[in-house]
Design goal:
about 475 residues; alpha/beta; two-stranded antiparallel ribbon
Amino acid sequence: MCARAVRTRSLRRTASITSPNYDFWGASCKQLDLGWSARDTTPMEERQLIYDWNNEGGANGAFDWTHARVDLNDETLRDGLQSPSVTDPTLDVKRRLLHLMADLGIVAADIGLPGAGPRVVDQVRALATEIRDQRLPIAPNCAARTVITDIEPIVRVSDEVGIKIEAATFIGSSPIRQYTEDWTVDRIVAASEEAVTYAVKHGLPVMYVTEDTTRARPETLKALYGAAIACGAGRICLADTVGHATPDGVRALVKFVKEEIVKKNDVKIDWHGHRDRGFGVASSIAALEAGATRLHGAALGIGERCGNTPIDLLMVNLVMMGYRDNDLSSLPAYAQAVAAATDVRIAPNYPVIGADAFRTATGVHAAAVVKAFRKGDRALMDAVYAAVPASLVGRQQEIEVGPMSGRSNVIFWLESRGLRATDEIVDRIFAAAKASDRTLTHEQVQNLAGGDAKLKPAGAKLETARRKGF
């Protein structure tokens, strides 16, 4: 066995694997023969069961994530609520969401755009007070156009509450926006300088945001970010406002900004993405690998048009890739709380959070999961037919019974609830499932089984140590 194999978490031995060149870490592990036997319970290493092509070359393969640091900024309470389909939650619910963010290790949150009017100002004040009084480890920020009238209420609330509130001053930067608004670059620079100078003069930390950065000219970005940095902005934010960028485009943009604009200045780079082309999470990770230090997102990806980068899925990937080491067991509760508060339905097939994410009624899939369960290994059960371990987010694999099921589905369903799985009962349920046009409900299976079946699976009593995945 390779020397580095001892660093990984164990699974029970499940098969005899012989490979002429089974090399997971770049070392030479020739003729790996695990010599499994039916009675062999010696632990085996995770990475001996899965060859991970994600670690082979490419941007991620060359990136030293062990030295990476990334923070998250949650846009749910501002940009997320700009979706035309959501309900604006009550103030009490927004307070609760701040606590759930903190539980997940989210260190910054956009708590509103006070320039929108007195109601938003009052809510921003209340949320900032909650952060202060409850000592939440969250740095608040507020969006503001590059006009004094938007920044002044942030200054006022910050002074009243007695905590720093970062001003996220934004203005359009792309040629198409300039043409539409009849703006010149000089006018945009002047407005940016005035806004950033005012905020800094009044003691606010500033994140200067260029809207539509991913469609802006390099020389324009140099002029705008250069002016903002000269006026005291501590952060600059690159915004993919319409979800235009591909991951390769994001890498090129962040690299340009870091090398040609930020240079040796003590200025941090934020990335704010949207998912109009479906690149939200991938582009955020590309931004991190190119030099961004804080990534933005919203719960369930809510927001303008197709929404923001889903911060829930971003967190899962950052943990699995090794960039972060947060406890994500409360992630489903956060996503469900946002869904309930905003009246947004979570699709059953939504990754990680959706009802079907760790649920199967297919015979082949279920049979493999059941075999893993019978080997007494939660990690194996989590990995054999899943890329994300259910235990990472406090969930478990679920076996259902439907027209695509095998008998093993029925047997496991019954046994996991402490019910007898006699041939008669199994045959009855199996026949009903094959005659159905959809997965049977728990109530239907219970009625077919007879007796007092529990409607929720008891779950495997296995080792539940959290792992990052393969």
